[in-house]
Amino acid sequence: MIVLKSKEEIEQMKLASQIVADCHREIAKMVKPGITTIEINEMVTAHITKLGGKQFTKGYHGFPAETCASVNDVVAHGFPSSTPLRNGDIVKMDLVVEANGWFGDSAWCYAVGEISAEAARLMQVTKECLYLGIEQAVPGNRLGDITSVIQKHAESHGYAVVRDLLAHGIGRSLHEEPNFEHVGRAGKGLLLKEGMVLTIEPMINEGTYRIKIDQDGWTARTADGKLSAQYEHTVAITAEGPLVLTAQS
User: Fold this and answer.
1) Smallest Cα–Cα separation from 199: which of 177, 168, 222, 227?
2) pLDDT value of position 93
3) Residue 176, annotated ligand binder?
């Protein structure tokens, strides 16, 4: 069942989403060679509390930390680590906040020091995929209009779109219907309606779209060991157009 939100409810969702956005602004100040993702995780935990939110990820189906920290070939769901980030790494930080009974969710990819031209290009194209998808999140479009433009843009640059990890509706629960891949056909799929709130979160790989899961049962890596990037926003579909609730500026 897809839960449509009123304008007032979408307004109420902004608090959790903007706490997430503010955490990402603080992460951007911290990311540099030598920092650990455990240190970033600790900052985020404190910052969420300071801003009046609640962390949600730690303990969710047994996940051990307040953030997902995914470095280089880790696509998603990586554990924060005491291993220092190195010059040239890319790190994806995925955050979920609950506030006043509503959820916000956003992942962002960060360059650590000086990264390669290839890594920078992957990050840029992935961010472009996110915003191209967001442009299609309007009433009357189909879900395939979002996913197909993401797939087309990624593949036109020689990249692959992860299939096995899904975007989702979001509201009073972190995961609501619909759940969807970031691939598809324009004009096909679920009709988009005013009041839907979705995560749009393309995961784009340098090589194959296939992934493998570590023995910890969580950490998802590219099957070929190549880089993966991700950007994610929580987006409300409104009569005035897409409203990015987790916008950082």
Assistant:
1) 168
2) 98
3) no
